[in-house]
Amino acid sequence: MSAVDYLFEQLWELPKDKLTWYAVLKEAKAKEKKQIVNAHGVKKDYSYSQIDPLLITGEEYYDKNFNKE
After folding, report:
1. Which residue, among 64, 57, 67, has the nearest Cα to 30 in the 3D structure?
2. HEC letters along 6-17
3. Which one is predicted more confidently, 40 or 47?
């Protein structure tokens, strides 16, 4: 189940109050992060040079591109 599917399903079934929805949003964001990190893989080379490779982990990739908090 994707993070979006999870979010929709939870919000549809739970009481309509801000605290509950905020808790579900935090859970959905954690699921999304896990999906992105897992999709990225262990380490990838983002350089254009084999002399000086830029290897980053999925966690670093997420933090650089998606972590706005």
Report:
1. 67
2. HHHHHHHHCCCC
3. 40
Beta bridge partners of 57: 43
Residue 36 corresponds to which tokens in the numbers above?
């992105």
Contact at 8 Å (CB) between 11 and 21?
yes
pLDDT of residue 10: 84
Q: From the CB of residue 29, how many other CB atoms can be counted at a distance below 10 Å?
A: 14
User: Whole-angstrom Cα distance, residue 60 to residue 42?
Assistant: 10
pLDDT band at 56 (very low <50, low <70, confident <90, very high): confident
Amino acid at 34: K
* Residue 53, SS3 per DSSP: coil
